[in-house]
Write a structure and sequence with these properties.
Strand content of chain B: 15-25%
CATH architecture of the largest domain in chain B: 2-Layer Sandwich
Distance between the termini of chain B: 49 Å
Number of helices of chain A: 25
Radius of gyration of chain B: 23 Å
Number of strands of chain A: 9
CATH topology of the largest domain in chain B: Uridine Diphospho-n-acetylenolpyruvylglucosamine Reductase, domain 3
Structural class of chain A: alpha/beta
Number of domains of chain A: 4
Radius of gyration of chain A: 22 Å
Strand order of the largest sheet of chain A: 1-3-2-4-5
Helix content of chain B: 25-40%
Number of domains of chain B: 4
Oligomer: heterodimer
Largest interface: A-B, 29 and 33 residues
CATH class of the largest domain in chain A: Mainly Alpha
Number of helices of chain B: 14
Largest sheet of chain B: 7 strands, antiparallel
Distance between the termini of chain A: 58 Å
CATH class of the largest domain in chain B: Alpha Beta
CATH topology of the largest domain in chain A: Glutathione S-transferase Yfyf (Class Pi), Chain A, domain 2
Strand content of chain A: 5-15%
């Protein structure tokens, strides 16, 4: 519950902090409506559309309505997939409006004690500290390898978890050991004629739970002619914080990352997670009120490139022979990779270049799978509706491999495969892992 | 506010789940795509069938509650803005395609069907429904019928009106009537079908429609012609048609539009030319080939400085980019975008564009003009800022002069957006007092208590006509 006093404070901050030009830029043409998953799945409810949400934000700023429970609910249910942005004739930065609104609400709202404790642990205690991330994932590794996992599964203890969390537990990747996680070198040389020096943004989850995918990324970059530098000072990108109304923490992480990467003399900063990449290219917006950091953020963002983009740019797929056993594959866009980083054709170009596979586009590959950061945990009901729809489209291609370009999407696809009872017949894989597999 | 009595009665018809009067729900149905119009309804009601619509209308008629039928709210005339409050009627449950009749070439739909869904369903069967308003990805057929929507293909194929052949409609007193049929010929009484199409929800609530379909054209070809001289472009338009060729699409962009499109999209458009025509023809391959050749020849004779004909679908897409990006490009210039649709006989296109340019100059505004040159339907689009009241006054004066000029040239104040609340004050300029009173008579016959979308089409006060001093 939000108290009346909290509502008043929220309203006041909306007046002070929301970008009025951006709100006015929405001309209410409605072109965003057909792209919005929550508008469609809510049965065409305007209050769950981008146009409706912007109208509500503006009405709160204008004092026409109070930021009530319905308003908060509408903002909570938004996936933040930003599919509304590429189709907007006026170019409204909906994602920025959403982030600001969520931040205002979060800063002025007293969460219940357990929620506060979880938020503090996750946002302050865990993600910004790579050593703790390693410990955490290390514990998961212990759980997986020690026999406790088998025991937990057999005793039915997992049945106490909500359905999709129990399923999620099954689809988590086999994580590396603590030792493996600590042994990441800081420099890796090109394995062919050098064309670029690149820096690698390793990410917090990607460099622990999905370390194998980072290894594949390194291998591809080396083969593509890149000298790689992986600065140790880098940290979590802050996307999770930014999207959950913890903007100040996100700013601190952004500054640490900018400082870590700026003097490396790299041509590009490479990411392999659409969710992180999209947040990194928005650092200039995040730090817009700080002139010195803003300038440094602009220099930083201009170097950000997704792994697919650089591989296509250096003609990796033409230089290196890629081949796999015959199979049908399909690709699920990462919303942030597509809608914010504007990378849509490069992954498809790479997949199309693998000999032996048949690439089949699924219907509405650009529609969110429902993963959306921690959305599949906090809004699991809507998330599962979206996932079930996604699996219908995926199955219709008869693909045995679903390729993604972001860890959240990958886990969600694996969850979908598990839910459909297709494990063993269908697999979800990160694009770099598939490419690494295809390298002959 | 609705009285508890009315509220209870409406809930008893549609159930609680389909009635909403919370503040946020009312807020998000307080607007449509028209700038500067916002007004809160009292409730939102979503009927599930025609009988429920009938019961709702009876209650509203009895208690004098305004009814505003609404599709996706993409219209540009404030036609669905509940300016007098009341009940917004949503058709999210009435969104089924009821039948595709391949023998009679018709489709029967409920009003909530999305236009593009309808198009996809019939194109899968090799059939064609030509009206293509630019909002068709989300607009509903009910909205299209009520606004008589146009689109890019109007020149050759006509508009929504030309495809509606039968309707089911509910009168304000609750009576359910059926008009027309799956018939090419039908002269049994007044043509109520045509009357209801474009009536903007002011007469009846449409609950079902049967639309005429035609066979899908076999091929399509696209070309672009650039001009240094506006009247040369306009002459080309007239001459193409004088040569007995009716292209599917004959779109026009003026220099101001070209400049902002190039700034925005950077697709290598020449910004030193005065006008661009985007031309498309469809039909059997040999006819399309012959027509496009002939059109190119006409354009050359009329001093086109450059002509590009697309050899592939990808090239065609590239040529269409400029026209498709026009609205986006203008919309990004300033926070408020006012998109108008003054329409003239196509022989007057050059005069109209010249007049728009002079008016823009006179009032010191940013107005870019693009639109459907083939049918004389232009979209002078103004990039402005609603917060700047002084400029907004100039915008209003400029558009008043544009409407005046359009009428003087034998045209109209709105070609395809409708009158709604936005153009209502100008309607008398076009229709004269007698025309308004004839229409008013029809309105009163159907809706004596004035509950059907009140405040639309008929204004309380007409605007004073501007006197042009030039």
């Amino acid at each position: 519950m939000t108290t009346l006093l909290e509502q008043e404070k929220i309203q006041q901050q909306f007046k002070e902090r929301m970008n009025e030009d951006e709100l006015l830029n929405c001309m209410r043409c409605g072109f965003c409506l057909p792209t919005c998953p929550t508008y469609i799945e809510s049965g065409y409810k305007e209050s769950h559309s981008p146009r409706g949400r912007i109208a509500m934000m503006k009405a709160v700023v204008d004092g026409i309505v109070e930021p009530d429970e319905d308003f908060e609910r509408s903002l909570e249910l938004c996936l933040g997939c930003r599919a509304c942005e590429p189709v907007c004739p006026s170019g409204v930065n909906y994602g920025h409006l959403l982030e600001e609104a969520r931040d205002i609400i979060n800063q002025n709202k007293k969460h219940s004690l357990p929620v506060r404790a979880v938020r503090k642990t996750v946002f302050e205690g865990l993600f910004p500290h790579q050593n703790r991330m390693r410990t955490m994932v290390g514990l998961l590794g212990f759980y997986q390898r020690s026999g406790i996992q088998t025991l937990a599964r057999k005793t039915g203890y997992l049945g106490l978890l909500p359905d999709n969390l129990a399923t999620m537990e099954k689809v988590l990747p086999k994580v590396p050991t603590m030792k493996e996680m600590k042994n990441r070198p800081e420099h890796l040389p090109s394995l062919s004629e050098k064309v670029h020096k690149v820096a690698f943004f390793s990410g917090c989850l990607m460099d622990t739970m999905f370390m194998k995918t980072n290894d594949s990324t390194m291998k591809l970059l080396q083969l593509a002619g890149c000298d790689i530098v992986i600065p140790k000072q880098q940290t979590c990108c802050g996307a999770l914080h930014g999207h959950s109304g913890e903007k100040d923490s996100a700013k601190e992480l952004a500054k640490r990352n900018i400082a870590a990467f700026e003097d490396l003399g790299a041509d590009f900063i490479i990411t392999n997670a659409g969710g992180c990449g999209a947040f990194l290219v928005d650092y200039d917006h995040l730090l817009k009120d700080d002139p010195v950091w803003h300038e440094r953020a602009v220099a930083f963002k201009e170097k950000i490139k997704d792994i697919s983009e650089i591989l296509v740019a250096v003609s990796f797929h033409k230089k290196v022979k890629l081949e796999l056993p015959p199979q049908v594959i399909t690709y699920q866009d990462s919303c942030h990779l597509r809608n914010v980083m504007k990378t849509a054709s490069a992954p498809r170009t790479l997949l199309g270049a693998i000999k032996g596979v048949q690439f089949k586009e699924m219907k509405e590959a650009d529609r969110c799978c429902g993963s959306a950061g921690i959305y599949n945990i906090v809004e699991s009901e809507m998330s599962m509706v979206m996932l079930d729809y996604k699996m219908v489209q995926a199955k219709a291609t008869h693909a045995t491999t679903i390729v993604t370009a972001n860890p959240g999407c990958l886990l969600q696809m694996q969850l979908g495969i598990e839910r459909e009872g297709l494990s063993g017949k269908m697999r979800g894989v990160h694009i770099v892992d598939l490419l690494a597999e295809a390298v002959k | 506010m609705l009285s508890n009595e009315v509220k209870d009665k409406l809930i008893s018809i549609v159930t609680k789940a389909n009635f909403d009067d919370s503040k946020m729900e009312r807020l998000v149905y307080s607007y449509d795509a028209t700038p500067n119009f916002q007004s809160m309804p009292d409730a939102i009601v979503s009927p599930r069938n025609t009988e429920e619509v009938s019961a709702i209308l009876k209650i509203c008629n009895q208690y004098g509650v305004p009814i505003v039928p609404r599709g996706s709210g993409t219209n540009l005339c404030a036609g669905t803005c509940p300016t007098e409050g009341g009940v917004v009627l949503l058709f999210k449950h009435m969104n089924q395609i009821l039948e595709i009749d391949e023998e009679n070439l018709t489709i029967t739909v409920q009003p909530g069907v999305i236009t593009l869904d309808l198009i996809n369903a019939i194109e899968a069967k090799g059939l064609f429904y030509p009206p293509d308003p630019s909002s068709m990805k989300i607009s509903t057929i009910g909205g299209n019928i009520n606004e008589n929507s146009g689109g890019l293909r109007g020149l050759k194929y006509g508009v929504t009106r030309d495809y509606v052949i039968a309707l089911e409609a509910v009168l304000p007193n609750g009576d359910i009537i059926r008009t027309g049929g799956k018939l090419a010929k039908d002269v049994a009484g007044y043509d109520l079908t045509r009357l209801f199409v474009g009536s903007e929800g002011t007469l009846v609530v449409i609950t079902e429609a049967t639309l005429k379909l035609i066979p899908m054209p076999e091929t399509r070809k696209t070309m672009l012609a650039l001009y240094q001289d506006l009247s040369a472009a306009a002459r080309s338009v007239s001459k193409i048609i004088a040569n007995k060729i009716i292209p599917t699409t004959l779109e026009f962009l003026d220099q101001a539009t070209l400049k902002v499109v190039e700034d925005f999209a950077q697709i290598g458009l020449p910004t030193d030319v005065q006008a661009v025509l985007l031309i498309e023809q469809d039909g059997p391959p040999e006819v399309v080939e012959r027509d496009i050749e002939k059109i190119a020849e006409v354009c050359k004779q009329e001093d086109a400085v450059s002509i590009q004909i697309a050899a592939t679908e990808d090239e065609a897409m590239a040529l269409r980019t400029a026209r498709r990006a026009a609205l986006s490009a203008v919309a990004r210039l300033a926070p408020t975008t006012i998109l108008e649709d003054a329409t003239v006989p196509r022989s007057e296109i050059a005069n109209m564009v010249k007049a728009i340019n002079e008016i823009t100059e006179k009032y010191q505004l940013t107005i870019c003009t693009f639109g459907h040159a083939g049918d004389g339907n232009l979209h002078p689009t103004c990039a402005t800022d609603a917060r700047n009241h002084e400029e907004m006054e100039r915008v209003e004066k400029a558009f008043a002069e544009i409407f005046e000029k359009a009428i003087e040239l034998g045209g109209t104040i709105t070609g395809e957006h409708g009158v709604g609340a936005m153009k209502a004050p100008y309607l008398e300029w076009k229709l004269k007092k007698e025309g308004i009173s004839a229409m008013m008579g029809i309105k009163q016959a159907f809706d004596p208590n004035n509950i059907m979308n009140p405040g639309k089409v008929f204004a309380k006060d007409s605007k004073k006509r501007v006197v042009i001093t030039r």
